[in-house]
UniProtKB/TrEMBL annotation:
<dbReference type="InterPro" id="IPR002772">
    <property type="entry name" value="Glyco_hydro_3_C"/>
</dbReference>
<comment type="similarity">
    <text>Belongs to the glycosyl hydrolase 3 family.</text>
</comment>
<protein>
    <recommendedName>
        <fullName>beta-glucosidase</fullName>
        <ecNumber>3.2.1.21</ecNumber>
    </recommendedName>
</protein>
<dbReference type="Pfam" id="PF14310">
    <property type="entry name" value="Fn3-like"/>
</dbReference>
<dbReference type="InterPro" id="IPR026891">
    <property type="entry name" value="Fn3-like"/>
</dbReference>
<dbReference type="InterPro" id="IPR051915">
    <property type="entry name" value="Cellulose_Degrad_GH3"/>
</dbReference>
<dbReference type="Pfam" id="PF00933">
    <property type="entry name" value="Glyco_hydro_3"/>
</dbReference>
<dbReference type="InterPro" id="IPR019800">
    <property type="entry name" value="Glyco_hydro_3_AS"/>
</dbReference>
<dbReference type="InterPro" id="IPR036962">
    <property type="entry name" value="Glyco_hydro_3_N_sf"/>
</dbReference>
<feature type="domain" description="Fibronectin type III-like">
    <location>
        <begin position="715"/>
        <end position="784"/>
    </location>
</feature>
<dbReference type="InterPro" id="IPR017853">
    <property type="entry name" value="GH"/>
</dbReference>
<dbReference type="GO" id="GO:0008422">
    <property type="term" value="F:beta-glucosidase activity"/>
</dbReference>
<dbReference type="Pfam" id="PF01915">
    <property type="entry name" value="Glyco_hydro_3_C"/>
</dbReference>
<feature type="signal peptide">
    <location>
        <begin position="1"/>
        <end position="23"/>
    </location>
</feature>
<keyword id="KW-0732">Signal</keyword>
<keyword id="KW-0326">Glycosidase</keyword>
<dbReference type="InterPro" id="IPR001764">
    <property type="entry name" value="Glyco_hydro_3_N"/>
</dbReference>
Length: 796
């Protein structure tokens, strides 16, 4: 080999191309070597995931006396013949007995099966000592020494809790989202967790659905960008074997967010074009960003439960996208096919899911029980099992679990560091959306006397939001906490008026009104407790819950300016509340550092820059309403006759009528992408590099953004397009780019986007992704009603 060739090889190796190739070959070789040594039972063991919630002092402290008694009696530990009755025992005695029983269950049901090679993954164990002990059983006490992958729902932070994903999406800031996921990974890995079930990429167009909180909103482009950023953050930017990386799991594949009526777990009916153009793209992006694993969803789409959908799991995910990580079911989503009426028994469940391409079963155990029999009967092939195991081992090897399986318990875990808390504060700042600010009520002067009112002003648990298993409310800084810590000089009185969001006791309303009357301004903290959104927490009425709207009215009647600060898990229907607030700052549950972040914004230490990742409807009956809808044949024109203008005994007519509601019109309360700032931005000079581009071309789009105020601020500049005529009907608008642009007062900047053919392409009539020639509209602006408009065409 000559020197020049050697030089080239060296360059290739340095640039990673070659080394990746080697690494891949090496991984494949190791997978095959291991597989060759495995018995069928050991293979199936890898496909089995088991959950165990530690029964420690902290968990037991939360049990009621009744819970404890039931446990003791059911376990045959108390209340039987010759046994003490629970009523004769102290709580300490009961605690000791429960802990002893739990340790025995752990030994029999987890540790021994791990030694026997029957468990490939555990979820919900977070104690480093226990994780190490079990990992040791896998590595040193089992025949083949295959490590387990340890999962946990680390959704928006592990201990340091960031805003809920819907809030993070409002930042329109991929770097911020990536940094948040990185911190979550560092914290989780420091106690031994190496796999998270996030990001959730379900497109959600229905605020009744509780899990909208966990979503990245309604838009496939935004969700795609931010989901990939989260994957990079969790997985250490591509190096899964980093000692502080954790494997990501994109979920729920697929359609779960389109549950009928927003009722969790419900049927979805997503036709193929919609599937390909809206629901699949965020998953594709994250798979391309290297997501190591993927989770199926609970719903059936068009009659086929996701954990048995071979078209999506095999043809799409493996065939077209070349995904080489592993697929896990959702929690018992496989056995739920019995209730769906899709499988007649557990054996058929295992057959359907294995053959559809679900590699690992979460908690429901049918693989362990029935796969040996199914293989003997030829209903599932050995190759299917081998491929599933290959997928799982490949990820474990890539994660470096064989080399680096244990947590170093001598090193302190890395939790709640100052850097993490600062990042969470910044994330909460960028996630807040200013919806209203009449007469520049905000920012507040620090010399004003403030009446702080409302149940969310000091709700350390609820402020963290849904899907928090590990965050400790004692670390949360609420708005009241922030006033005590960071804003000690502020003159304020605090009158919660309600104990929690659902509290209906109005007896303190007068006190709240008085407090407002005696102050210069009232800041009213309303919203939702964290348990009112999230999994299995759908609502049919999404007004401010309980009597909170009445509280707001009572405070307003004091005649002082009112600032409404909302902390919620979903976009609530707040139209009826707007007249009673001079300014509204909306926070999707903002996490550990929400309090300081909110006061930073209220006092103008920070300038709001969040934009809505979902449409805010006026009435729940408008749902689903989303900006990127198709046009009807009778689009709204603006001079429609509304409900109150219809003459009495009007004759039947549909002529001249369009698609809208007689009572609430066609518009939402706030459109997608909307959000105010203390600065004022103006857009001008839309400039396209060409009036037409070829199908493989790139259009350069420029627009001038001016900060016409004297306040420094950040604007999320958004670019939308419309493909005017397509082989299938195209949405009226689609987000295709966004940038956060910071400008000093009076400053101007030309913002530039490169719009490539790929962004204009879609899955048309023939379900092939391509750009169709024709005319396009284009808009640049600060929300989805952007008015700076141009047009261009795409030619052959
Ligand atoms: C059920 C949820 O749907 C899923 O998102 C979660 O990751 C699993 N439970 C594990 O807790």
């Amino acid at each position: 080999m000559n020197v020049r060739k050697l030089g080239l090889l060296g360059f290739l190796a340095l640039s990673g191309i070659f080394s990746n190739g080697f690494a891949q070959k090496d991984t494949d070789k190791r997978v095959e070597e291991l597989l060759a040594k495995m018995t069928l039972e050991e293979k199936i063991g890898q496909m089995n995931q088991v959950s165990f919630f530690a029964v420690d002092d902290k968990a037991i402290a939360q049990y009621s006396d009744d819970d404890m008694d039931t446990f003791l009696v059911r376990m045959g530990i108390a209340g039987g013949q010759d046994q003490k009755k629970p009523s004769e025992m102290t709580r300490d005695e009961k605690t000791a007995l429960i802990k002893k029983a739990a340790a025995q269950i752990l030994d029999n049901n987890i540790t021994q099966p791990v030694r026997d090679g029957k468990i490939g993954s555990l979820l919900n164990i977070v104690d480093p000592g226990m994780i190490n002990k079990l990992q040791k059983a896998a590595l040193e006490e089992s025949r083949l020494g295959i490590p387990m992958i340890i999962g946990r729902d680390v959704i928006h932070g592990f201990k340091t809790i960031f805003p809920i994903p819907l809030g993070q999406a409002a930042s329109f800031n991929p770097q911020l989202v990536e940094d948040g996921a990185r911190i979550a990974a560092v914290e989780a890995r420091s106690v031994g967790i190496n796999w998270t079930f996030a990001p959730m990429l379900d497109i959600s167009r229905d605020a009744r659905w509780g899990r909208i909180a966990e979503s990245l909103g309604e838009d496939p482009y935004l969700g795609g960008q931010l989901g990939a950023a989260m994957v990079r953050g969790f997985q250490g930017n591509g190096n899964l074997s980093d000692p502080d990386a954790i494997a990501a799991c994109v979920k729920h594949f697929i359609g779960y967010g389109a549950a009928e009526g927003g009722r969790d777990y419900n049927t979805t009916n997503i036709p193929l074009h919609l599937m390909w153009n809206v629901y699949l793209p965020p998953f594709y992006n994250s798979v391309k960003a290297g997501a190591a694993t993927l989770m199926t969803s609970f719903n059936d789409n068009d009659g086929i439960p996701a954990s048995a959908n071979d078209y999506l799991l095999k043809d799409v995910l493996r065939g077209k996208w070349k995904f080489d990580g592993f697929v896990v079911s959702d929690w018992a989503s496989m056995t739920e096919m019995l209730a769906h009426g899709y499988a007649k028994d557990g054996k058929q469940v295992a057959e359907l899911s294995a053959n559809a391409g679900v590699d690992m079963e979460m908690v429901s155990g049918t693989y362990l029980k029935y796969l040996p029999e199914l293989i003997r009967e030829g209903k599932v092939s050995m190759e299917t099992v081998d491929n599933a195991v290959r997928n799982i081992l490949r990820v474990k090897i890539r994660m470096g679990l064989f080399e680096n399986p244990y947590v170093d318990t001598k090193k302190a875990s890395i939790l709640y560091t100052a850097a993490h808390l600062n990042a969470a504060r910044r994330a909460a700042v960028e996630s807040a959306i200013l919806l209203k600010n009449d007469n520049n009520t905000l920012p507040l002067s620090e010399s004003k006397k403030i009446a702080v009112i409302g149940p969310m002003a000091d709700a350390p648990h609820d402020q963290m939001g849904t899907w928090v298993f590990d965050g400790d409310k004692n670390h949360t800084i609420t708005p009241i906490g922030a006033l005590k810590a960071d804003y000690k000089h502020i003159n304020y009185v605090y009158e919660p008026a309600l104990g929690y969001s659902r509290d209906k006791n109005t007896s303190n309303f007068e006190k709240a009104r008085q407090a407002a009357a005696n102050a210069d301004v009232a800041v009213v903290f309303l919203g939702e407790e964290s348990i009112l959104s999230g999994e299995a927490h759908s609502l049919s009425n999404i007004n401010l819950i309980g009597v909170q709207s009445e509280l707001l009215k009572a405070v307003k009647s004091a005649g002082k300016p009112v600032i409404l600060v909302i902390m919620a898990g979903r976009p609530l229907t707040i139209e009826r509340d707007l007249p009673y607030a001079d300014a509204v700052l909306y926070n999707f549950h903002p996490g550990t550092m929400g309090g300081p972040a909110i006061f930073d914004l209220l006092f103008g230490k920070a300038n709001p820059s969040g934009k809505l990742p979902v449409t805010f409807v006026r009435e729940v009956g408008q749902i689903p309403m989303y900006y990127n809808h198709n046009n009807t044949g009778r689009p709204f024109v603006g001079n429609e006759v509304m409900l109150n203008d219809i003459p009495l005994e009007a004759g039947q007519t549909s002529l001249g009528n369009t698609s809208f509601y007689l009572d609430s019109g066609k518009d939402p309360l706030f459109p997608f992408g909307y959000g105010l700032s203390y600065s004022k931005f103006e857009y001008s000079n839309l400039d396209l590099s060409s009036a037409s581009i070829p199908v493989n071309g790139v259009l350069t789009v420029k627009a001038t953004l001016k900060n016409v105020s004297n306040v420094e601020g950040t604007e999320v500049v958004q670019l939308y397009i419309q493909d005017k005529v397509g082989s299938i009907v195209r949405p009226v608008k689609e987000l295709k780019g966004f940038q956060r642009v910071s400008l000093k007062g009076g400053e101007t900047k030309v913002v530039e986007f490169k719009l490539s053919a790929d962004e204009l392409a879609f899955y048309g009539r023939d379900l092939v992704k391509k750009v169709e020639v024709g005319d396009f509209n284009i808009w640049v602006g600060g929300d989805s009603n952007a008015s700076l408009k141009g047009s261009f065409s795409v030619t052959e």
